[in-house]
Amino acid sequence: MTSSPGSSSSHPYPRRWRRPPQLITTRRWRLAIPLLALAYMILALGSLEVDGARLMEGLSRGARFVQGFLQPDFTSRWHDIRQGLIESLTMTLTATVVGVLVSIPIGIGAARNLSPRPVYMVCRSIVAISRSLQEIIIAIFLVAMFGFGPFAGFLTLAFASIGFVAKLLADDIEEASASQIEAIRATGASGLQLIHYAIQPQVMPRLIGLSLYRLDINFRESAVIGIVGAGGIGATLNTAIDRYEYDSAGAILLIVIAIVMFAEYGSSYLRKTLQ
């Protein structure tokens, strides 16, 4: 039986707009919540203690920094800049490699469709702990433990890489094709054979892309954690700013931007080639 053009079977979706259900049905609360939010914003702005004189002084310093950024000096502190870049690149590469290698077994253990529940809970806890702390907080703690230098930065970036890569790798494994996993499992394959033949072909391109993306992130983070003494180009940048050498600071920022752009375009090209 053919349905008529105006019948409901030819229009599976509603043709008339309906107001969505209200989350707050009480009119008193609908008026009170915006007023409370506005009062909170007013109190929050009042707690900032904005000082006009301090604001004008900060604007003048910012103008000097912008002027130094527009006239960068690459020669005066080139030795320190080169040393900081070598430390940052070394920390970035080694921390990414170590972090990815450690995150692979943790990511496999954190996949619900592969691991028994005790292993799953332990690996997920490791991922949650790694992701719950910002790199700058980890760097402060590790600098207090191991002292100033790139070793604390290496440990910071490696620890952060574990949580990042393991979390996304575990999610990719859980979203892998179940039919392919069951087909390999039905042949009597062991756990390692299951991972090699059923999981690896599906997640390897994604893992390579995540590793390259984390490499990019680690270099940018190396410039941040260096400010708290974890070595790298961030320490050189912090020293230049403390000495009011804004032209050298501008040169450092330009170098960081150039390296990040090169890594971004290079990783995008490599991901397209591999996929």
From TrEMBL:
Provide the membrane topology annotation. Multi-pass membrane protein
Q: Where in the cell is it found?
A: Cell membrane
- Membrane-crossing residue ranges in chain numbering: 29-48, 93-115, 136-162, 249-270
> Which Pfam families does this one have?
BPD_transp_1
Q: Domain named ABC transmembrane type-1: which ranges? A: 85-265
Keyword annotations for this protein, in alphabetical order, are: Cell membrane, Membrane, Transmembrane, Transmembrane helix, Transport
What InterPro entries is this protein classified in? MetI-like, MetI-like_sf, PhnE/PtxC
Q: Does the keyword section mention Transmembrane helix?
A: yes
Its domain of life reads: Bacteria
- Stored NCBIfam families: PhnE (TIGR01097)
Q: Which family does it belong to?
A: Belongs to the binding-protein-dependent transport system permease family.
Recorded protein name is: Phosphonate ABC transporter permease
Q: Which organism is it from?
A: Halomonas salina
State the organism's lineage.
Bacteria, Pseudomonadati, Pseudomonadota, Gammaproteobacteria, Oceanospirillales
